[in-house]
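Q: I'm teaching a short session on how sequence maps to structure, and I want students to see two examples side by side rather than one. Could you give me a first protein with its sequence written out and its structure tokens following it? Keep the formatting plain so it prints cleanly on a handout.
A: Of course. Example one:
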Amino acid sequence: MKCFVITKKQIMLGISVICALTVAVICSVSAFAGNERLLPIYCVETEKKQIAISFDAAWGNDDTQQLIDILAEYKVPATFFVVGAWVDKYPESVKALSDAGHQIQNHSNTHPHMPQLSKTQMMDEINSCNKKIEDITGKCPTLLRAPYGDYDNVLIKTVSEMNMNTIQWDVDSLDWKETATAGSICDRVTSKVKPGSIVLFHNDAENTPEALPEILKCLKDEGYEFVFISDLILKDNYEIDHTGMQCPAETQSGDQ
């Protein structure tokens, strides 16, 4: 029978290898956790046949009153994400939107690519726009839609720390495209909407006022209820899946 003698050198080498592997595993886990991709809310899981329509207002203003009139005709509430610089140019339109019963939310102050900013600059963009909106409407925004739909983990964490939610969309009307017609806008939106959808329009797209009445009529005929995004989203006990859908948090095993 052979006897194996383990030397002190071999023991020390083995300990070193184990330690190195342990550190590598810990670092890998930490790196993975630190790089977890955070997502804004694109849509909401719901059994109710509810959807929210939204408009981004950053540049022009020719169609805003017409949109207000159409929404009033169909008794549809909408969420308008406005840029602070747009508020400076068109304060009367911000007031008109608010007076008509629509919600005014934050689309940044100067329409930058937010991930290119520092956290302090992000907060300045959000706070400046919030103040301008609140000064006119008396209500401070609770939602942010990042310009260009451009976000990163820092932005989402910053917005959350400011007790706000970052909002995207799951149905893009593509009304801003030069090739978009009223028919193509209508077909695209009505074919893609589902319960819990957030639909994106723009307040100054050429053919949106023509497309909007048919969209609203069609979706109402299908039994959809229109609500504000702030009423559609869950306020607590939720998680956001890999698609950006906000879902009720799963009950842990053993919970009653």
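Q: Perfect. Now a second example for contrast.
A: Example two:
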Amino acid sequence: MKSIFPSIGMERLRMGTDGEGITTLVCAAGCPLRCAYCLNPQSSTEKKPPVYIFTPESLYEKVKIDALYFLATGGGVTFGGGEPLCYSGFITEFARIAKGMRLNAETSLWVSESSLRQAAKVIDTFFVDIKDMNPSIYKAYTGRDGERVYENLKLLAGLVPSEKVVIRLPLIKGYNCDRDRDKSEERLRALGYSRFDRFDYIAK
């Protein structure tokens, strides 16, 4: 059966937000988390159905128009969401077609071990939004237990070099503080991670 990627949309010619160079962002429909300040609430298929249903071939036809931009700037395709690693099989098939095209993933890591292992074989850079390493804060903000994320962080550290992972450490108003972020970073450095993006969530 052909893999598909249900998507809420895509955006071309992005710079400085989804990886190096010029990127095309392809957003997955569906997410296992229910974050209080979700940046893409439309990704919840409970609220809105997918806009596009891509096959690996149809997505390649869409993005290949920018292949020269990717090559010239070191950019590529970034899979965001929702949670794109729920579709690791699709991403793997797409990688076979889009040979030489750089692939990034923006992920919460709230996915199965098998999905992460599969993605680690083809993703060039992971942008991991871990919310917070404190289990109480994580559950209060996402509505989910964070243990799966913490185990996947350990797994990912052993699957890819640390330079291929950027950990996003948000300051979430009403949920954590800078001291919490410092503690999260300390735990993550102990796992071998070295690239961090600290920023503030803006509640909508």
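Q: What should students look for in example two?
A: Point them to this: The mean pLDDT is 94. Also worth mentioning: Strands lie at 5-15, 22-28, 52-54, 76-80, 102-107, 125-129, 165-171, 196-200.
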